[in-house]
Specification:
By secondary structure, the protein is mainly beta. The protein contains three helices and eleven strands. Strands 1-2-3-7-8 form a five-stranded mixed sheet, with helices on one face. The longest helix is centred in the C-terminal third of the chain and has 10 residues.
Length: 155
């Protein structure tokens, strides 16, 4: 890779798509596609009006595993839990028609599931342009992650 980054081999079925490292340490990145509905980018308000009542200015990404199931304790295996990855990367192809356009945020900033605060809520709002919660610059997002700043993205 470039700029001092190395891509590490992922062993087994992990909750992230990339494990990158530099001289400072590892960063685990989960990549998701911007959600579509009827062949167009889905708005956050369409995903959940109760949680996102005034979010017609935001798109949505669905943050859960493709395959579902139940573990030995009877818990659903489809939702992600906080700490399973460090950064969420959202491919914006549905709205931009450009496979190179992404927005990134710190995974710990995502909205928790209202029924279980240890799980990441299935739908996350994504702004139409970068803001103080989302950036189009991966290096900046890594800096946010490494800063340890605690917050939650705006709905």
């Amino acid at each position: 890779m470039e700029n001092g980054w190395t891509e590490n081999k992922i062993i087994g079925d992990q909750s992230y798509d990339f494990d990158l490292s530099d001289v400072t340490g590892h960063v685990k990145i989960q990549v998701k596609m911007q959600r579509q509905k009827a062949q167009r980018p889905m708005l956050a308000s369409e995903a959940n009006k109760k949680i996102f009542p005034n979010s017609s200015h935001m798109w949505v990404v669905e943050t859960q595993r493709t395959r579902g199931g139940i573990d030995n304790s009877g818990n659903a295996t489809r939702p992600y839990r906080f700490k399973e990855f460090d950064i969420l990367a959202v491919a914006l192809h549905p709205s931009t028609k450009d496979w190179g356009k992404f927005l990134y945020t710190v995974a710990d900033w995502l909205i928790p599931d209202p029924t279980d605060p240890l799980k990441i809520f299935k739908y996350q709002p994504v702004p139409k342009i970068q803001n103080s919660d989302w950036t189009d610059n991966l290096v900046q997002c890594v800096q946010w992650f490494r800063s340890g700043l605690k917050k939650q993205i705006n709905k």
